[in-house]
Amino acid sequence: MARAAPKPVTKIDVRAIRLAVGGSQEWFAATISVPLATLRNWEQGRHPPSGAALTLLRMIELDPMAAMAIVRRLFVQAKS
Questions:
Q1: Which of 38, 67, 76, 77 might form a disulfide with 59, Cβ 3.0–4.6 angstroms?
Q2: Are 29 and 38 in contact (CB under 8 A)?
Q3: What is the spatial distance between Cα 80 and Cα 58, in angstroms, rounded to a whole number?
Q4: Would you say residue 8 lies in a domain?
Q5: How many CB atoms lie within 10 A of CB 16?
Q6: How much is the average pLDDT of 19-41?
Q7: pLDDT band with cut points at 50, 70 and 90 for residue 66
Q8: How far apart, in whole angstroms, are the C-alpha atoms of residue 5 and residue 28?
Q9: 24 is in which domain, residue-wise?
Q10: pLDDT confidence of 29, banded at 50, 70, 90?
Q11: Number of folded domains in the chain?
Q12: Residues in CB range of 29: below 8 A, 6 or more apart
């Protein structure tokens, strides 16, 4: 019988991640392109992030400086 792939850990402290990059809720929500209400729901534990948002948050958690540098570059490209 084949083993099922392990489920990734989805427990994540979104507030701690945001504070690690030093931004307000408004700034962080805009930076990662999610509605402010969604970010607040994540931080208050009402709804956990999932999918691509969870992956982005994990990347920021693992290396905040590198991840935010990439996000900033994407915003600069989008404005050009």
A1: 67
A2: yes
A3: 28
A4: no
A5: 10
A6: 95
A7: very high
A8: 32
A9: 14-79
A10: very high
A11: 1
A12: 35, 36, 38, 39
